[in-house]
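Entry for zinc ion complex. Fields follow.
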Amino acid sequence: MPPDTCPNCGAPVPAGSKACPECGSDEETGWSDAAHADNLGIPDENFDYEEFVKREFDQEGSVPRGVHWAWWLVAVVLILVFIAFWFRWG
Ligand SMILES: [Zn+2]
């Protein structure tokens, strides 16, 4: 439950709202300004994803042949799985 008024900035917090409309404090951030600053920089998942892609890309750049055999293996396995299902149902 949000407080009636924001402990951080004193603005009225509408009932049912999960965060202060004025400063963005919320339950998770403990209704504090410092936590709000934290909250702004969150996109952790996006960050990890982009880093992952970047790392993958770098790897491909530095080791041109290293990546492709693995993808061929994945493709072959997928085809084998598909064929296995096909025969099972046929
Ligand atoms: Zn506030």
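NOTE: The mean pLDDT is 76.
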